[in-house]
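Q: Hi! First time doing this. I have a protein sequence and I read that you can turn it into a structure. Is that right? Here it is:
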Amino acid sequence: MAIVYRNRRTDAASVVQEVEQTGRRALAICADVSIDAEVLRAFEVVDRTFGRLAGLVNNAATNGGPARVADVSREQLEVTMATNLIGPFLCCREAVRRMSTALQGRVGRSSIYPVLQRV
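A: Yes, that's right. Below is the predicted 3D structure, encoded as structure tokens:
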């Protein structure tokens, strides 16, 4: 299992440790899913480490921080949309490129709160 995180390294390491205590392999990868090159790098690490991708859970999300609508900047909107919309799409795209229904693959797409980067 690969856990992709952006800035909560300790939390990601804790999840990896919990998974490994069940006897399964796990790996934490630091990447920002809103950046295409980082998504590609994360999937390449998964490819090298685990081989065939079996599933995907998108869980990255941000709300840009608390603010009144009248005070939300364009930059806050762009960061929110890049993380909550573009990032999950990029991850789904890479998962689809690697998975085949003939191999029992499946792609999960959540709501606006897209486990690839929640920690």
